[in-house]
Every structure is written in structure tokens, then in C-alpha cells.
Amino acid sequence: MNRRALSLGGFVVAGVSQVLLGAAMYATPDTPANPLFSVLGGLLVAGVFVRALLRGDDLNGLATRPLFVAVGVAAGVISATLTFGVLIA
Q: Cβ neighbours of residue 3 under 8 Å, at least 6 residues apart?
């Protein structure tokens, strides 16, 4: 798997996780925050990075830089772990 797919894929997972958390917040009416912002933010993040991933765009070389890859993968792993923990617990 190349670095571009890893970094962009990590951000896509982070965006989808935000959407799932927002949907879970809608299911529980006693949440203190507005879940609409979580859903919209997740859709925005996932949309931007899915589009770049599907078009083969590397965001002017940014997606292949090691720091961007590390942040993308870390964001995806942390978001997926936290989302899994919230939805299961």
C-alpha cells in the first residue's frame, strides 16, 4: 500500500468515525453537544479526502510526505478505536 492511500485513508476513517459518533449522539437524547456539527464535520472531512483518494490526487505532494502519512494513519486509528469504544460501551 502506498503512502498516499495510507494517509488519505486514515483521514477518511476519521471522518466516517465522526459521522458515526454524531449518529450515536442523535440516538441518545441526553447528550450535551449538538450532534449536527459532528455529522457535518465528519462528512466534510470524509468527502474531501475520499474525493482525493478516488481521483488519485496527492494534494500537491502533501499526501506522500511522511509527517502527513503519520498524522493520517494516527487520526484514523485513534478515531476508529474511540468510535468502537463508544459504540460498544
A: 63, 64, 66, 69
Cα torsion angle, 23, 85, 44, 49, sign = negative
| Helices and strands in the chain, H and E counts | 3, 0
- Interval 8-39: pLDDT, tens: 999 999 999 999 998 888 888 776 778 888 89
Element holding 25 (H helix, E strand): helix 3-27
The C-alpha cell 494513519 sits at 73
* One-letter identity of residue 42: G
DSSP of 66-82: HHHHHHHHHHHHHHHHH
SS3 call for 83:
helix
C-alpha cell at 70: 503519520
pLDDT band at 78 (very low <50, low <70, confident <90, very high): very high
